[in-house]
Amino acid sequence: MSDVDVRCEPGGGGWICQVTVSASGSHSEHEVSVGRQELESLAPGSADPDALVGASFAYLLERESKESILPSFSISDIERYFPGYGREIRTRL
Q: Fewest CB within 10 A of the end CB: N or C in the chain?
């Protein structure tokens, strides 16, 4: 089981989120950018991206190890690697 800590700050026309994933005595750190349009598309009606990013990391960790997750990416990049992400993440929020 992984512990995911998400901290988002406004920046770059949206938000920059610092994510730390801890499991099995180690951790990984990631930076995720979320644009306003991405937030509206993936989490309609949400005012901030914290829940979206947290749910997205839960989704990713079901499919790969924390070490396999890119250190820096845009939230929309997930769909490129995992087709169907957008459709599924909307059902989780």
A: N
Give me the amino acid identity at 90. Answer: R
Q: What ranges do the domains of the chain cover? A: 3-92
Residue among 56, 92, 75, 59 at smallest CA distance from 14:
75
Alpha carbon dihedral 9, 37, 76, 62, in 10-degree steps, equals 70
pTM of the predicted structure, to 2 decimals: 0.96
**Each residue's pLDDT tens digit, 6-55:** 999 999 889 999 999 999 899 999 999 999 999 999 999 999 999 999 99
Decide if 31 contacts 16 (C-beta within 8 A). yes
Q: List, in order, residues 6 or more apart from 90 with CB less than 8 Å away.
A: 42, 43, 44
